[in-house]
Specification:
By secondary structure, the protein is mainly alpha-helical. It folds into 3 domains: about 15-65; about 70-105; about 105-155, no CATH class. Helices cover about 65% and strands about 0% of the residues. It contains 7 helices and no strands.
Length: about 160
């Protein structure tokens, strides 16, 4: 077992070092630090990070020892992707149904065609094309020319 005095140099031993030895230690430390920084730069470059990610993804789907495809993992990912697509389509269909329901509740007021913004005209076209029953859009031009439907029933 080493003595405590052997583990750490005494203060007298520290004073015995010359300026050249201290400078040499500083230079060695500086060189090691520069090498470490260069290694860190190389490891964190975008190309190195991409190579690591590719290797990791490859190892997930291929057995690194044999190179055989891991079918159970490929199937699991495929099922996950299909599931996400189905959920997204379901959410979009639900939002579309809600939008159609909202459009069924809209009260149509006669206005001149020039006063209708393109966004409102698009909504009106969608409502007319997608409504369950007959849709009637009456403009002020229609009213002026006497082309008014006798009865307009709200879609139930």
């Amino acid at each position: 077992m080493a003595k405590k005095s052997d583990a750490k140099p005494s203060s007298a031993a520290k004073k015995e070092r010359s300026t050249e030895e201290i400078q040499a230690d500083i230079d060695q430390t500086r060189a090691r630090l520069v090498d470490n920084i260069d290694k860190l730069k190389a490891e964190t470059s975008p190309q190195a990070l991409m190579a690591k990610a590719k290797a990791k993804a490859h190892d997930v789907f291929f057995n690194p020892e044999t190179g055989v495809v891991r079918t159970e993992r490929v199937v699991a990912v495929a099922i996950g992707v299909v599931g996400i697509i189905i959920v997204r389509r379901g959410l979009k269909a639900r939002a579309r149904r809600r939008e159609l329901q909202r459009l069924r509740e809209v009260v149509w007021v006669p206005v001149p065609r020039s006063a209708v913004s393109p966004e409102v005209a698009k909504v009106a076209r969608n409502a007319k094309e997608l409504s369950a029953g007959p849709a009637v859009i009456v403009t002020s031009d229609d009213l002026a020319k006497g082309r008014v439907p006798l009865a307009i029933e709200a879609a139930a």
